Amino acid sequence: MKLATLKDDSRDGCLVVVSKDLTRCVKVPDIAAHLQGALDNWDVSSPKLQEVAKQLENDSSYGEKFDQSAAHSPLPRAFQWADGSAYVNHVELVRKARRAEMPPSFWTDPLMYQGGSDSFLAPHDPIRMADEAYGIDMEGEVAVIVDDVPMGAGTDQARDAIRLVMIANDVSLRGLIPAELGKGFGFFHSKPSSAFAPVAVTPDDLGDAWDGAKLHLPLLVDYNGAPFGKANAGIDMTFNFAELIAHAAKTRPLCAGSIIGSGTVSNKLNDGPGKAISEGGDGFSCIAEIRMIETINGGKPVTPFMKFGDTVRIEMKDANGASIFGAIEQTVQKYTPKGA
Amino acid sequence: MKLATLKDDSRDGCLVVVSKDLTRCVKVPDIAAHLQGALDNWDVSSPKLQEVAKQLENDSSYGEKFDQSAAHSPLPRAFQWADGSAYVNHVELVRKARRAEMPPSFWTDPLMYQGGSDSFLAPHDPIRMADEAYGIDMEGEVAVIVDDVPMGAGTDQARDAIRLVMIANDVSLRGLIPAELGKGFGFFHSKPSSAFAPVAVTPDDLGDAWDGAKLHLPLLVDYNGAPFGKANAGIDMTFNFAELIAHAAKTRPLCAGSIIGSGTVSNKLNDGPGKAISEGGDGFSCIAEIRMIETINGGKPVTPFMKFGDTVRIEMKDANGASIFGAIEQTVQKYTPKGA
User: Where is the Fumarylacetoacetase N-terminal domain (chains A, B) (predicted)?
Assistant: First the structure.
């Protein structure tokens, strides 16, 4: 089953069930006004939503046209966005890039930060920033939405709580990270609003690509219209989603609708760092990684971070080449605060 | 105007308007089902809620009995909980306690962490933890709930966005903090669910005690039935709420209903560290501070962190000795995960 949220005049948008081919959708006000409402009562809402999804597949005249650019992130705002760093290769490269050492425990103890979840960007919204000097970067990720998870849940309980799978652009401001992490309290300014692809998908819809805790497909990242990354989200994921969720729930319960992210998808190449697609590699899901590779190979980074006007597209396709989640398509734009 | 949220079978509870003396309340389903709903549309809901509040004061037979122990935190779950460290004295002492140096920029650049906001404790709920070795501590704080704040808002805009004032217990797990901060991504396990006193109050209701961005009253913290802290929240607050909110909104907008915390209220004494109430001082709003003072005075901390069965009570009284927000009353209890 595929679900999306259309923009309307409400803060949480309008929940729709979307056809598998992403062409049609149906509003379901009698089941739930918005996705958080459906998640608040998933045992009741989910079978009803599945019925609508079945009808959409059986009757090609049913529903209205689904327009990805009219969609919010599936949860326009959420009660939690906890983002892991499951691809430890990415962490190691980014740390090297900012000359910070990586403790060996990072291979056994998941790294996770509490992200802001009150104001996500829509998947086709611009990334508006006041200053290019912030070092604007994309981070292509996989994320899951969970049901209620009790404090201290084990990995089996955590795996069973996964309700929906999404892909994300966890926008990062690299120029602000070193000083902010130096303060010791983690990211705040350096992690502005994230965006999620238009459609959230139930695990059963992913077929063999979903093993219960990992998604085994390439994450396609295009930067300014050219292929930039196609790292496989099922490869080099040191901590799977069950482990990330259990980690998040160690000292407090997670409310239904909490989003848990994978961190930037990143593949090693023959046990070394990755390689650009143009050089026969699988590329990168963020600019910070290619800058690190450039530093390793040539002594300094060459690729700049995103400038106003730059575009990023993030998508994932199934074995038949069909888009699963729809696409994140964002352009970086100059932001001027009102009154400034 | 005073607002509270009664526990019911819903996730967000039932919004009530509470009489100034905290004895009576009125449900307002025709105005808003829950507090987040009222905040989502404050311009419309607020005058209607004010009407009910006026009626409650004018007619002492109006409303039902208000029972603090039946209350949730005013927002049982929120879209954001961003907690500052405005009382830099606290930060300096806690850092000294864990032998971490404090950069001088901490006096000019606010420290703030992104907290979990999906599963707050009710004000009279127990603090349930698996292990006393986590180093369970209370942190008495002031917090505000804001309306929408655009990205890049200045301090005037930030001040104008303050809708409600609360007091909080930002439960902290001191034993987990050093290792977690050492990982570089900020707090996660070490900041479990926080609790807020039963009643949220509009700034106009605080009279002269509220100067627009600071609350000039002592925060009364009782530990195991004895006075432990009475630090004045208006003193030694290096960054006021307008500055904290503007800081939070630097690179992203804040959604209506976002909660911004002050950090542990902490007063210096004659420009030195504080002193216990039993020794004539204003005491402490967390155990970590008294342990630091003990270390300064005697070479090592004496007061242990909270054990199962320990209780904490946090309250604030107006000039006439009347409770403003009601009281946080929590007991630490052993938690055993289901199936463990």
Answer: 1-77
Q: Using a cut of 0.80, tell me whether the model's pTM lies above it.
A: yes
Which is it for the CA torsion B188, B191, B196, B202, positive or negative?
Answer: negative
Q: In this structure, are residues B122 and B77 in contact, taking their beta carbons and an 8 Å threshold?
A: no
C-alpha span between A83 and A112 (Å, rounded): 5
**Pick among A102, A119, A157 to test the B interface (most B CBs inside 10 A):** A119
Q: What residues of chain A lie within 8 A of the CB of B337, using their CB?
A: 150-154
Would you call A185 and B77 a contact, using CB atoms and an 8 Å cutoff? no
A33 SS3 class = coil
The verdict on a CB contact (< 8 Å) between A187 and B185 is yes
User: Is residue B339 scored above 80 in pLDDT?
Assistant: no
B80 contacts A118? CB cut-off 8 A: yes
The pLDDT tens digits of the residues spanning A207-229 come to: 999 999 999 999 999 999 999 99
pLDDT for residue A97 is more than 70: no
CB contact under 8 A, B103 and A79: no
Q: Do residue A251 and residue B79 have CB atoms under 8 angstroms apart?
A: no
Spatial contact of A45 and A31, defined as CB atoms under 8 Å apart:
yes
Min Cα separation B193/chain A (Å): 6
Which residues lie below 8 Å from residue A70, measured CB to CB, with a gap of 6+?
A6, A7
The pLDDT tens digits of the residues spanning B235-246 come to 999 999 999 999
Whether the Cβ atoms of residue A182 and residue A315 lie closer than 8 Å to each other: no
Q: Which residue has the tokens 């079945």?
A: A54
For residues B27 and B65, the answer to whether their CB atoms sit within 8 Å is no
Q: B221: which strand partners?
A: B229, B314
Residue A340 has pLDDT above 60, yes or no: no
pLDDT value of position B271: 73
* Contact list, B336 vs chain A (CB under 8 Å): 152
Cβ contact, residue pair A114, B186, below 8 Å: yes
Confidence of residue A32 (pLDDT cuts 50, 70, 90): very high
DSSP SS3 for B195? strand
Is there a contact between A221 and A140 (Cβ–Cβ < 8 Å)? yes
Map residue A151 onto helix, strand or coil: coil
Chain segment B134-143, per-residue pLDDT in tens:
999 999 999 9
The answer to whether A185 contacts B335, with C-beta atoms less than 8 Å apart, is no
Q: Per-residue pLDDT for A156 more than 70?
A: yes
Residues A184-205, mean pLDDT to the nearest whole number: 97
Contacts of residues B303-310 at CB distance under 8 Å and 24 or more positions apart, as own/partner, are B305/B132, B305/B135, B305/B136, B305/B137, B305/B174, B305/B175, B306/B127, B306/B132, B306/B136, B306/B137, B306/B138, B306/B332, B307/B132, B307/B136, B307/B332, B308/B132, B308/B332, B308/B333, B308/B334, B309/B333, B310/B223, B310/B224
What is the ipTM for the molecules in this complex?
A: 0.97
Alpha helices for B211-327 (secondary structure H): 241-248, 287-298
Nearest-Cα residue of chain B relative to residue A183? B111
Q: Which residue of B has its CA nearest to A256?
A: B118
Helical pair A287-298 and A88-97, crossing angle rounded to 10 deg: 60
Q: Which residues of A touch B192 (CB under 8 A)?
A: 151, 251-252
Q: Which of A11, A176, A251 sits opposite B173 (nearest CB)?
A: A251
> Tell me, what's the pLDDT at A234?
98
Query: Could B258 and A118 be called an inter-chain contact, meaning their C-beta atoms sit closer than 8 Å?
Result: yes
What pLDDT, on the 0 to 100 scale, is given for residue B274?
84
